[in-house]
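User: Could you check the structure of this?
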Amino acid sequence: MKVEYLGNQELLKLKKTAFLASSTISSETVLQVYDWATEMRNQGECVISGFSSKLEQDVLHFLLKGNQPIIFVLARRMYRDIPNELKGPLAQNRLLIISVSNAIRQSKVTAMIRNKYVCEMANKILFVGVAEQSSLYAYKNEYQGKLSKSI
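Assistant: Sure, the predicted structure tokens are below.
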């Protein structure tokens, strides 16, 4: 796996909480996750994620409004053009973007590689909405020792 970095690699030395969410989430769970994201932002905790599912993207938007460190792991090749919402946090040295694939677009395979990487790098992991049929289910079992509080 060829890993490419853009941003502050010092963030890798911090304690990191991974956030991984299934693509199907109940609305009451969504509100709990928003509260969690706000809490992480207020505490300045480093969050690592692929920010790929709709809920993960929402969490990214919450976190970008704060000042805490964020590690964004792509399941595709590195951005050619940095999205506008990421430019400020990159300039502030509080964002690290990591690419774990040379693929042009994210696929199921590259997403699995990315999710494993996120789990490996994290000190704690928050899985949300992970049922037996979820692609995240195997990781939830494999990384039991790192599980954060449940939502």
